[in-house]
Design goal:
The chain has 426 residues and is α/β, with parallel strands linked by helices. It has helices spanning 14-24, 29-42, 98-103, 110-116, 120-127, 135-143, 371-379, 384-400, 406-419; strands at residues 85-88, 91-94, 106-109, 148-152, 162-168, 175-181, 186-195, 200-209, 214-221, 228-237, 242-249, 254-263, 269-279, 283-292, 298-308, 312-321, 329-338, 344-353, 359-368.
Length: 426
């Protein structure tokens, strides 16, 4: 356990990493140092130009507080109903679910998993190669003090979603979620991400779907409009496994979400559904990359984005079909809706195909509300403001329909409706 006399750390620096390692008595010190070295190697030596809209490239980490050992607080679960695991400012709290316990499912924090000392968490973490980490993923591996570990045994089907909450309130402590589904298992996870004003929240999520398993990950990011959220996601699918990603980015001043989905076994399938809404000068960047690495794999990606009132964003999607991935099928569709004259969105789909006998499709559109649809709605007595809101909500529906939980879909529709006010649509 950390020493409570240690002062607060300021900055993601090598010196502070050594302080963190010393106070945690971390057995993975070599891994943390290697991860930080990779982070440094991926960090631009000077801020990159944002001329093409990639404003996240200009982010600096000066003055951030990755952890404060003098103020370790265990979060309470009372104000976060229905959550199985909560991580607030780098410290976790677990609500024991008797149903999950009977099934042998681990829904716990990294610290609790390490205390149990069954070695499962450490084995999985060791299997994730550092050289595959993104810049932000590397930083999380170096500085994370706790995380969420979901482990579903072989053949177990979890009938209700497992809900986790990551929150940055007073610190900028990184967040980490790790999900493994054993062969033939089935699980749905809802990950909620929030942060208070001016916090910078950096996180990662890793998913391992073993033979014939089915994993659904729903992400709801609704941070304070002054916060910054930087996330990295990775999934690995064995033969006949399915991974479903459903991601909603609706908050933060600046948010970036990089997703890499690897299809590693024949018959593996990945689907990605994403929605994001940028308004009032905010910037959101969503970059999915689906990699078909073996024959007869399938993927489908749908991204729906909107911007208004000076909001900006971009979606850079990429489908990779390796030379060995014959018989694979892939599609990528990205559509952007501009709701005001000062909004800006970029959609950049790409295909990298090195195999024969494949089916691959990609397409993108950027447009405004359809005048004919508006005229039709108004001719039926619907006021223009209401017509604009209804049409915009309908624009998101092809992606929202792919979110696996009825309550989440209802919540998102209500949240989007609240964003689609007359002051945001002009």
């Amino acid at each position: 356990m950390p020493s409570l006399s240690t002062p607060a750390l300021t900055g993601f620096t090598r010196e502070n990493l050594e302080t963190l390692i010393a106070n945690l008595a971390a057995p993975d010190s070599a891994v943390r140092r290697a991860a930080f070295a990779r982070f440094e190697s991926l960090t631009p030596t000077k801020p990159a130009s944002s001329a093409r809209g990639n404003e996240t490239s200009t982010i600096t980490l000066d003055g951030l507080r990755p952890f404060d050992f003098s103020a370790v607080r265990t979060p309470a679960l009372s104000d976060i109903p229905d959550a199985h695991v909560v991580i607030i400012d780098g410290v976790g709290k677990v609500r024991v679910d008797p149903v999950l316990a009977r099934l042998g499912v681990h829904a716990t924090s990294f610290r609790s998993a390490c205390a149990a000392d069954d070695g499962a968490l450490q084995t999985i973490l060791a299997s994730l190669p550092i050289e595959a980490d993104t810049r932000w993923g590397s930083l999380v591996r170096a500085f994370a003090t706790d995380g969420v570990f979901i482990d579903v045994p072989q053949g177990v089907r979890v009938e209700v979603p497992i809900t986790i909450v990551h929150s940055a309130r007073e610190l900028d402590a990184p967040a980490w979620t790790l999900v493994r589904a054993g062969a033939g298992a089935r699980v749905s996870v809802i990950e909620r991400i929030n942060a208070t004003a001016e916090r910078t929240f950096i996180g990662r999520c890793d998913v391992i779907a073993e033979l014939g398993s089915h994993v659904s990950i729903t992400v709801l990011q609704d941070a304070d409009p002054h916060a910054t959220v930087l996330w990295s996601r990775n999934s690995h699918c064995a033969s006949e496994a399915v991974i479903e990603w459903a991601i909603a980015q609706l908050g933060a001043r600046m948010a970036t979400d990089t997703l890499v989905a690897d299809l590693n076994g024949e018959g593996a399938r990945a689907t990605v559904a994403a929605v994001f809404f940028s308004t009032k000068g905010r910037f959101i960047d969503f970059s999915p990359r689906i990699r078909h690495l073996v024959p007869k794999t399938t993927s489908e990606t749908v991204v729906k984005s909107a911007a208004s009132a000076g909001g900006r964003g971009r979606s850079v999607g990429d489908i990779v079909i390796a030379a060995a991935a014959h018989g694979s099928q892939a599609s990528l569709r990205a559509d952007a809706l501009l709701l005001s004259a000062d909004a800006h969105l970029d959609c950049v789909p790409a295909l990298e195909i090195a195999a024969n006998d494949v089916s691959a499709f990609h397409g993108a559109t950027v447009g405004t509300l359809d005048d004919e649809e508006l005229f039709y709605a108004q001719s039926r007595g619907i006021p223009r403001d209401e017509a604009e809101r209804l049409i915009a909500l309908g624009f998101f529906e092809p992606a929202l329909a792919r979110f696996p939980d009825d309550a989440v879909r209802k919540e998102l529709r209500e949240r989007l409706a609240s964003l689609l006010t007359s002051e945001n649509v002009a």
